[in-house]
Design brief:
Layout (H helix, E strand, L loop, with lengths): L6 E5 L2 E4 H18 L5 H16 L4 H24 L15 H24 L7 H19 L4 H19 L3 H29 L9
Helix pairs in contact: 1-2, 1-7, 2-3, 3-5, 4-5, 5-6, 6-7
């Protein structure tokens, strides 16, 4: 990973690392594949996590640990989408809005998880430079990926909330390319949200008896 951790170029005074750039480009591709509901989103997310793990390992242990968890959740997402493949009318997974109980459970898990991880980061300062925002992004990413694995439209809302903190945090920590990519994530999230929203509404719309399919 030494070559990947070397500097690729300087952009607006920020030093861009190869690992930061390549890992985040894979992450961007994974989000685009998720929008298209392609099962390949999960292997690409796994690879992005692996590359970013190498970028963070040794000096940002908390961020490296986050990427390890991301890789595990990517494996879970692959398994879930393999099971649900073909449920949609176009042969992909079917998407839906979460129930109120599922929303409450995810919100509670996100809140409790953020507090727990932030306290862990504060207890071991070497794990993170910014315990609370880093914990927020860490837990928010896991919640978003879980919702994606379950085909929930709320996946996109979770990513928007992560973006709100992810952009300034990455710039502050010197990962400028990650910050730029998070801005592009925001645009992709809005398009993906619209697509999944419309698909979930179409799937929920009852078909009148005798109407053409």
């Amino acid at each position: 990973m030494n070559a990947l951790n070397s500097e690729a170029f300087v952009l607006f005074g920020q030093h861009i690392l190869w690992s930061d750039m390549v890992g985040n480009l894979f992450g961007l591709a994974a989000l685009a594949l998720g929008w298209r509901r392609s099962i390949w989103t999960w292997p690409v997310q796994f690879l992005a996590g692996l590359i970013l793990f190498g970028a963070f390992f040794g000096h940002l242990t908390g961020s490296a640990g986050k990427q390890a968890v991301v890789m595990l959740v990517a494996l879970y997402g692959w398994w879930q989408w393999q099971r649900g493949k073909g449920q949609g009318e176009d042969g992909h997974i079917a998407v839906r809005f979460a129930t109120w109980r599922e929303r409450a459970a995810m919100a509670a898990a996100a809140a409790a998880g953020t507090v727990a991880v932030a306290l862990l980061f504060k207890a071991y300062p070497t794990l993170s430079w910014d315990p609370w925002p880093d914990a927020y992004i860490f837990v928010g990413t896991i919640v978003a990926m879980y919702a994606q694995a379950r085909g929930m439209v709320e996946f996109w809302f979770a990513w928007l909330l992560v973006d709100l903190v992810g952009v300034p945090l990455n710039f502050a920590n010197g990962y400028a390319f990650s910050g730029f990519v998070y801005v592009i994530y925001g645009a992709l999230v809005l398009w993906g949200l619209r697509d999944w929203w419309l698909r979930s509404r179409a799937a929920a719309r009852p078909t009148l008896e005798g109407a053409p399919a």
